[in-house]
Amino acid sequence: MAGWSALAESFPHRHVATPVALPPGPEDEGAGMEQISDVEIPLDRDVFLRTLVRELATSLESVIGLEEASGYVSLVGQAVGTQIDEMYLKALGTDRLTGEQVAEALVDLKRRIKGDFYVIEQDETKIVLGNRVCPFAEKVVGRESMCMMTSNVFGTVAARNLGYARVELEETIARGDAGCRVVVHLVPDVDVETVSGREYFGDRAVAP
Predict the structure, then answer these.
(1) Tens digit of each residue's pLDDT (9 = 90 or more) over 67-88
(2) CB-CB contact of 159 with 105 (8 Å)
(3) How do residues 12-25 score in pLDDT, each as one tens digit?
(4) pTM of the model
(5) To bridge 205 with a disulfide, which of 51, 149, 156, 201 should be the other Cys (CB 3.0-4.6 Å)?
(6) Among candidates 141, 145, 147, 150, which has minimal Cα distance to 174?
(7) pLDDT digits (tens, 9 = 90+) for 126-146
């Protein structure tokens, strides 16, 4: 037995383990509390994406200024406008929209993304649109650079089909107006340097 005693002495002494409280199991969690998945918070894909765009615009405006930020958003808007135009052309089985179809497409595309645009007046020289609800909802307020999405999508669609467009954002919800008033000019002004708005050119630009 002495040998066993000597062998036992050669191992480290054991310490008595102190009981540790285990974390609560699923059956114990949230006793008396609402489940996270059942909590009502204003978050879904739409809110997330609108917030994402607003914060991107906020960062750009604060770092490089409103004018430069508008330029960056314009690049995105032009690409989006081209893709949207291709969708309508393919769906309608045509290679070019008429003036009436362009106006209808501008209203329709905004309707599909939860805007509320409508045609105020239209002729061969211009399309005047109003709007009661911005697709970006409250996220657009105070972020004018986000309006370049509308300007570039409208301008790109109109110019690709009719040859030319100059978009004026006369009133915008972003600036604090009750609604938007957008004028899409379809004929170049003789003295374009004295007028406002952004110009867009299609593959068959109209000479002033």
Answers:
(1) 999 999 999 999 999 999 999 9
(2) no
(3) 555 555 666 666 66
(4) 0.78
(5) 201
(6) 141
(7) 999 999 999 999 999 999 999
Tokens of 148: 């370049």
Strands 198-201, 117-122: pairing is unpaired
